[in-house]
Amino acid sequence: MYYKLGDKRYGNKLEALIAAKEKTGDANNIEYVPHTDWDSYDWLNEPEESWQEILRQHALELRQKYSYLRLWYSGGVDSQTIINTFVKNNIHLDEIVLCRDSPIDRFDTFDNGEINWVAIPYLKDHKDAFTRTKITIIDIGSEDCYNLWSNESLFIENQTNLDYSVTFGMINTYKDEVKPNSIQSQKNAANIHGMEKPIIGLDEHGFYMYYIDTLTPWQSKHDPTTSDEALEAFFLSPKVWSKQCHMMKNFCKEKKENYLQFLVNGERLPLLTTDSVCRDPLYLPFSIGKNINVKKYHENSLSSRCGKCLFRENLTINSGSPLIDMNFYMWSRIEEIIKSKIGKNWLNNKENIKDGITGKLSKKYYLEHDYNFYNEAISYSTDEVEFRNALSEFNNSFQQLPKSNTLIMPEDRLNSSSEKAKPPK
Question: Buried b vs exposed e over 152-182: b needs ≥16 C-beta within 10 Å?
């Protein structure tokens, strides 16, 4: 995963944007490449093997390619699907890393629920499968956040969706700055992660797939060709990505109507839909953010990404931590740099950096050339009210995540002596 300007590759988006602006006069002249092997792959032919067999093959390929496999496991559906693949096919993982983070050193609250209430129970219940696997739990606390955020250059280098989320990717990329001894470097090692949902579209030429750089949990500060340890985005491997995108294409062709409208309108399919088609179920029924409407609370929040970030921000604000001021300062500095170097048109919200830098799309890769479905999709009623009502009914048809009394919104206040959070029943 990298950016390209001429023959030069960049592992960091902001660096690539600035270079494009300085060398060509237009920051948009960079090319975003999700995977080095995508351009040479035959996307029009769906792999014949089953989805489970495709996953097994890829896990085995990684085992044969690397001497050391490290999986970053969160308990979400993506990493759950990956760990299930290794376990049920008896493919060895050398290390499993779980990462919890809290700017106020509280690791038992809602925002770390996937780790505490899903991932750790899974590992305990399957301990016989991991007798030769190293289990590492990293807690990133207030001191670690301060050390990271006080280094302005690191903050700017890793500018994508940072806010209050010190993700597993940041820990891997910045382990020497954040947690010097948390992860031991290994020769010929791969850091495996997974969050890449299938993304497809439909136009007058047929069904296609693509990828968006803002969906990446982090960006490497290193030249992608010289990183010490490989970053393996499990679902971006060409055959794996092809299979899951073809599965979603077939699903939409069968269901038609609202699904085809999503694709023609350039909208992403709902995560609950893609997860139901090509992800294993959660080990335990708890997930952060997917069922929480954060738009209502967005205007008064520094964090705009998800319920987890909102929750963490409120913990920080209500504890009186100076980190809230540091977070605001760092975002302000990035905003100054972006506006001065590449122009404010690269901000999703030209008045506020918290909405992030505009995403860069990969090119379209066609899965099937078929004009009939596009013509059928655009023939549906385009009445806005009718269409929005249909989408609303569709989204509301899913069972909502039970409300947790640990979820604190901006108008609330946290009593620091409150009881420890417990998972929703």
Answer: eebbbbbbbbbbbbbbbbbbbbbbeebbeeb
Is it the case that residue 307 has pLDDT exceeding 50? yes
Instruction: Find the domain containing 257 and state its range.
Output: 2-286+361-396
Q: Collapsing DSSP states into helix, strand and coil, what is residue 206? A: strand
Three-state secondary structure call for residue 352: coil
Exposed e or buried b per residue across 64-94, where buried means at least 16 C-beta atoms within 10 angstroms of its C-beta: eebebbbbbbbbbbbbbbbbbbbbeeeeebb
Look at 236 and 159; give whichever has higher pLDDT.
236
Highest mean pLDDT among 55-59, 252-256, 319-323, 342-346: 55-59
Interatomic CA distance for residues 196 and 33, integer angstroms = 14
User: Has residue 328 been placed in a domain?
Assistant: no
> Are the C-beta atoms of 94 and 133 separated by less than 8 Å?
yes
User: 3: which DSSP letter?
Assistant: E
Please state, for a pLDDT cut of 70, what percent of the chain lies above it. 72
Q: Residue 231 pairs with which residues in a beta bridge?
A: 191
- Residue 95, Cβ neighbours under 10 Å: how many? 20
CB neighbours of residue 255 within 10 Å: 11
In a domain, 139, yes or no: yes
**pLDDT reported for residue 186:** 86
**Residue 103 lies inside a defined structural domain of this protein:** yes
What is the SS3 assignment for 19?
Answer: helix
> How far apart, in whole angstroms, are the C-alpha atoms of residue 369 and residue 373?
10
Closest C-alpha among 117, 123, 62, 121 to residue 97? 123
Task: Report how far apart, in Å, the C-alpha atoms of 4 and of each of 32, 36, 391 are.
Answer: 6, 11, 37
Give a yes or no: residue 116 inside a domain. yes
Any idea what the Cα angle at residue 118 is, between residues 184 and 312, rounded to 5°?
80
CB atoms within 10 A of CB 24: 13
* Closest of 235, 229, 201, 230 to residue 215, by C-alpha: 235
* Cβ-Cβ contacts under 8 Å for 224 (sequence gap 6 or more): 1, 2, 9, 11
Tell me whether residue 39 is exposed, middle or buried, using C-beta atoms within 10 angstroms of its C-beta: 0 to 12, 13 to 18, 19 or more.
exposed
> Across the chain, what does the average pLDDT equal?
78
Number of domains in the chain: 1
Chain CA centroid to CA 246, Å: 21
